[in-house]
Amino acid sequence: MFGLVNIAAKELIIGEFGAEAWETIRHRAYLVDDDFVGMQDYPDDLTYRLLAAASAVLGLPSDDLLKAFGQYWTRFVARRGFGELLDVSGHSLTDFLENLDNMHAQVGFIFEGLKPPSFRVTDAGAGRLTLHYFSDRPNLGAMVAGMLQGLEAHFQLDIQVCQTEEKAKGADHDVFEVTFTPRAEAAN
Ligand code: HEM
After folding, report:
1. Within a domain: residue 47?
2. Which domain range does residue 170 map to?
3. Concatenated DSSP letters for 46-109?
4. Alpha carbon of 186 to ligand 1 centroid (Å)
C-alpha cells in the first residue's frame, strides 16, 4: 500500500502509545527504514506485518487496531491535503459513500497504481443504509467500520455500524448495516 497508509499508522501509534512502543513494533515487524514516502508504493505484506507486530506488542486485537486506524484516517488525510476532496465528495453520508469509488479514482490520479477498494450502497433510507465493501485484500472489515465511525465529525452525525457479513467467514464480501442520526447541538 502507499506510504501514506504506513505514515498514518506510525503517527497514530506514536501519538497513542509513544515513540518507544513504535520502535519495538517496527523492529518486531523487521522494518529497517521507517522513513516512509507518502507517494511510494510499499508491499502490502509490510503493512500487515506492522499490524501483527502492533497487536502483539500492545496486547490488543488487530481488529481493535484496525478500527482505531480507520477512525484516525479521515482526520489524517484531511491534514495531508485531501480535505477539499472530502468536502466535495458528498453533502450527505449516503451521497459520500455512494461516491467513494469516484473519490478513490480521483486519489488514483495522484497515487499512480493505486489499488483501491470498491463500495456499493443499497437500501438507503432515512437514517440508514447498507454498505457493501469489495477488496482483494483480506481482513480489513474492521478498518472500514472505523472509517465509517471516523466520518461522524465530518457530517455531524452519530453513526452506528454493524458488520452483518464477513468475507473472512465465507461470505461473498463484507456487508455493514449503518444507521445514523444528527448530532444533538452542544448545549451552551
Ligand atoms: C480523501 C480521503 C481518502 C484518501 C486520500 C484515501 C486514500 C487511500 C489510499 C492511498 C489507500 C491505499 C490503497 C493502495 O495503496 O493501493 C486507500 C485504501 C483504502 N481506502 Fe481510502 N482514502 C480516502 C477515504 C476513504 C474512506 C472515507 C473510506 C471508507 C469509508 C476508505 C476506504 C479505504 C479502504 C477500506 C482501503 C484499504 C484498501 C482495500 O480495502 O483494498 N477510504 N485509500
Report:
1. yes
2. 91-182
3. HHHHHHHHHHHHHT--HHHHHHHHHHHHHHHHIIIIIHHHHHHT-SSHHHHHHTHHHHHHHHHH
4. 31
